[in-house]
Amino acid sequence: MMRAVMNPRVLNGLIVASAMLSIAASSWALDSRVLLIGFKPLTTLLILLRAWPRGADARSARRALRLGLMLSLLGDVVLLWPEQGFLPGLVAFLLAHIAYAVAFTREHRFLARPAALAGYALAAGAVLAFLWSFIPAALRIPVACYVLALTAMSAQTAVVGLASQGDDRRRGRLLMLGGALFMTSDALLATNRFAHALPAATLWILGTYWAAQWCIASWLKPATPAPT
Question: By residue range, what is the domain housing residue 200?
């Protein structure tokens, strides 16, 4: 049974199905708290399973990437209670971004592409400046620290993506896309939470979030050649 689940095609199908059920559970389509509690963590857990057998040739990066996904899973769980869990969830994801950044620097120097950092810093700074007056005073410093970690992580995905060659090129480009999607998801989440309610917010926030995590989980080499 477990071997069948770990088949990349099967696992990808389960990830998509679980993500769709989670999105529907938190919207008007189903509006089911029980389904949300079950399928939101399950989706991230399935993405973690996708990453788990990968990276046998890069053990240090694999450990850090797995840690990032586990911290993301923790963040997803505590954010099921959006008011009480917001700050703990913010800290969990901040640590996840640090773990990801560590993974992405195992073979590529940290922020080796200043233009990538400048681009992400400009985008993040613009979003933060727009939201600043809406963010409660007690949360401004934690949110700013989170944005700093997210920006560094996303910029490092661009470093890896642009430097990847040969067989690593496709996975490097996927990772770079993951960084951009993570930034997009969090910008949407913060805007929806602090400033203005967005139409179909759950679809766009969770859709870009899990797409980002899937791209990150797909970065390291698979254990055996398999369709992805």
Answer: 58-217
